[in-house]
Write a structure and sequence with these properties.
By secondary structure, this protein is α/β, with parallel strands linked by helices. The strands form four sheets. The chain has a three-stranded parallel beta sheet, covered by helices on one side. Strands 1-2 form a two-stranded antiparallel sheet. It has a two-stranded parallel sheet with strand order 3-4. It is globular and about 45 Å long. It contains seven helices and nine strands. Helices cover about 25% and strands about 15% of the residues. Helix 1 packs across helix 3.
Length: about 260
């Protein structure tokens, strides 16, 4: 695993982490991938649910195991210059970070990784993602693609429910929540094999609080900070998320 960091002053640093079989880096990645609610190749439904029943990242009843895994992930995969910079930031300072990961590393929960024993990436950084150049270069642009239907676990289509009657009949599990309490309840009962969709307004986070951004509902904003602090009971997080909000696809702020 080779990492490269471009600093704000346009200087570059780079380094590597061994990912050979049975190395500490390989084992840490394996532990993180096993804990994430993402289907693995040829995994059956029963195998997936059994794996999630023991996942520290899904069950909030295992905080010490969760923190230990995310701290090990941060120490292994966060480049040392980035980890040092994030650790040195004061509470009212925020760093914008652009991440590009490829292969299995693209599943890393970068925001949740610990910089040190008490600070996570999300406490100090606004993280954005771009596709890895190697992935884009490997795509076969001439081959037609087939769109596979996905089950919908939760869809915030319109927080005011103005268009609820206009939705077509469907056999999918479809929620039309309007309040923060309803959304949280739906998330706690979501199918991890399904898809979480949000079609609503997105208030941007405050400059000094990356976790203050979220989705706007009828009773206010459901922030990322609220989501992180609300899961004090076992949850089943959908493995796929679709967010279509203001200015999505450069459509303008009125979307």
């Amino acid at each position: 695993y080779w990492w490269t960091v471009r600093h704000p002053d346009s200087t570059w640093t780079w380094g590597s982490q061994s990912m050979s079989h049975d190395s500490p880096g390989w084992q840490t990645l394996r532990d993180l991938l096993d804990a994430l609610p993402l289907r693995q190749p040829e995994e059956t439904d029963d195998q997936f649910y059994t794996r999630m029943d023991g996942s520290p990242l899904v069950l909030a009843t295992m905080p010490e195991a969760t923190n230990a895994l995310l701290l090990q992930g941060g120490q292994t995969f966060l480049p040392p210059p980035l980890r040092k910079t994030l650790a040195s930031l004061r509470a009212n300072e925020t760093l914008r970070v652009l991440v590009s990961l490829n292969g299995p590393l693209s599943a890393l929960p970068v925001n949740a990784l610990f910089v040190d024993d008490s600070k996570q990436v999300i406490d100090a950084a606004l993280v954005s993602y771009i596709s890895a150049p190697a992935l884009i270069a490997s795509l076969d642009w001439d081959r037609p693609t087939a769109i596979q239907p996905s089950p919908v676990s939760l869809a915030i289509v319109d927080p005011s429910l103005r268009n609820a009657k206009a939705l077509p009949e469907t056999t999918k599990v479809l929620y039309l929540p309007s309040t923060t309490e309803t959304v949280l309840d739906a998330l706690h009962n979501a199918d991890p094999l399904g898809l979480f969709c949000a079609f609503t307004h997105h208030p941007p986070p405050h400059a000094d609080n990356p976790a203050s951004g979220g989705v706007r509902l009828t009773d206010g904003t459901l922030t990322l900070g609220t989501l992180l602090s609300s899961f004090n009971t076992p949850v089943k997080t959908p493995e796929r998320v679709l967010l279509a909000m203001c200015e999505s696809l450069a459509a303008g702020a009125s979307v």
